[in-house]
Amino acid sequence: MEKHCKACDRTLSLMDFYGATTGRISSKCKDCTKEYVKANRLVRIDYYREYDRKRGDRPDRVEARSAYQATEQGKQAGSRAKRRYAERNPDKRIAVNMVNNAIRDGKLPRRPCEVCGAERAQAHHDDYSKPLDVRWLCAKHHAEHHKAMRRSAA
After folding, report:
1. Nearest C-alpha neighbor of 12 from the set 27, 34, 36
2. Which of 78, 58, 56 lies closest to 68 in space, CA to CA?
3. Cβ of 32: how many Cβ atoms within 10 Å?
């Protein structure tokens, strides 16, 4: 059987339309539907980013993600992602290693968060070409700093 797409004006097989197997067939073909979805996401990107963030924080999603990461397949996927990140960001990787080695060797003392004074602070690089020039920020303020930097870059 065939159906006419209302968007591109082509007559196509039913299998080229979403819903062909469930009986509730779309009026647009799969190609037109995909194009519409892509365009809509670009137009409403702020809405969808917020939606994705909230969806990712739902307890069922967090639990599913944790369960997957505990599987062998999840561990391998995590290792591949870390390896790709290190390959894409060699300057960052070198700077992180230099800071960790300097802390281990006692050449770079850990400091409290420069914003709130929390003892457990992370080293933040404003410039990766100066690997031992770091600011100390707790996890909360480190994340807030990066979020603000992403916002100002956009």
Report:
1. 27
2. 78
3. 19
Residue matched to tokens 């404003």: 126
Here the tokens at position 54 are 């909230």
Per-residue pLDDT of the chain in tens (154 residues, 90 and over written 9)? 899 999 999 999 999 999 988 878 999 999 999 999 999 999 999 999 999 999 999 999 999 999 999 999 999 999 999 999 999 999 999 999 999 999 999 999 999 999 999 999 999 999 999 999 999 999 999 999 999 998 887 6
Contacts 24+ apart (CB under 8 A), 135-139: 136/110, 136/111, 136/112, 137/113, 138/113
